[in-house]
Amino acid sequence: MNKLMLSGLMIFFILAFSIKGEAQRFKGGVVVGANFNQIDGDDLIGFHQIGFQGGLKVYTIFTERWEMGLSILYSQQGSKAAATDYSSSYDKLKFNLVEVPVLLHFNEWKFKLGTGFSYARLINYTTIDITGTDISALQDYNSNIFTFIVETSLMTNEHLSFNLRWSKSLSNLQGNSDNGKFLSRVIGLRAIYLF
């Protein structure tokens, strides 16, 4: 798996930094932002777990209005109890992922609308119960996660845009379905800088 990820990163970097030769067909840039997370099924309510998201992005331009976006992102997801929430056996769930979203984008004036899917690979996780004990070793989570994404961006100039993204996992985060179903929902606020 590490060789596959390394090969994918190398191809991504080659594409991202060769855009000058194909300036009319490709754009590349960096993505930095925050995820506001919630997991359906863990009995924790609200988007209290905040995580980092950052990485690289490449667009393939089809026409003036249509383009395809591919990213490689480090993403933190999970959920966290509110200060007064005692309804769950969990206090905090935190997932660190490598995510590869592929989205189709429509451009209109200064706005960009996009939708697509993402594949994420779980790097590691932390699970804290309501007593504050780390029970990560007792948990089994799915290493492969597929997600549906909808997003919009406001382009302030040809290089900088601000992005609002909503996503929901299509696959169960629980490794054992007998333990119930965990579905991640994420609201992302990000800045994208294109070279």
Could you explain the architecture of this structure?
By secondary structure, the chain is mainly beta. It has a single domain (27-194), classed as Porin. The protein has one helix and eight strands. The protein has one helix at 2-17; strands spanning 26-40, 49-61, 66-80, 90-108, 111-129, 144-155, 160-169, 183-194. An eight-stranded antiparallel beta barrel has the order 1-2-3-4-5-6-7-8. The protein is elongated and about 55 Å long. 27% of the residues are buried. The model has no long low-confidence stretch (mean pLDDT 87).
Give a brief description:
This protein is 8% helix and 59% strand. It has one helix at 2-17; strands at residues 26-40, 49-61, 66-80, 90-108, 111-129, 144-155, 160-169, 183-194. The model has no long low-confidence stretch (mean pLDDT 87).
Based on CA atoms alone, the radius of gyration comes out at 18 Å
CATH topology category name: Porin
Distance between the termini: 30 Å
Q: Average pLDDT, to the nearest integer?
A: 87
Q: Strand tally, please?
A: 8
Overall geometric form: elongated
**Level-2 CATH architecture:** Beta Barrel
Number of helices: 1
| Overall tally of domains | 1
CATH class reads Mainly Beta
Order of helices and strands: HEEEEEEEE
Given the helix and strand composition, which structural class is it?
mainly beta
Question: Would you identify the regions where 5 or more consecutive residues have pLDDT less than 50?
Answer: none
Helix content: under 10%
Largest sheet, in brief, is: 8 strands, antiparallel, barrel
Strand order of the largest sheet: 1-2-3-4-5-6-7-8
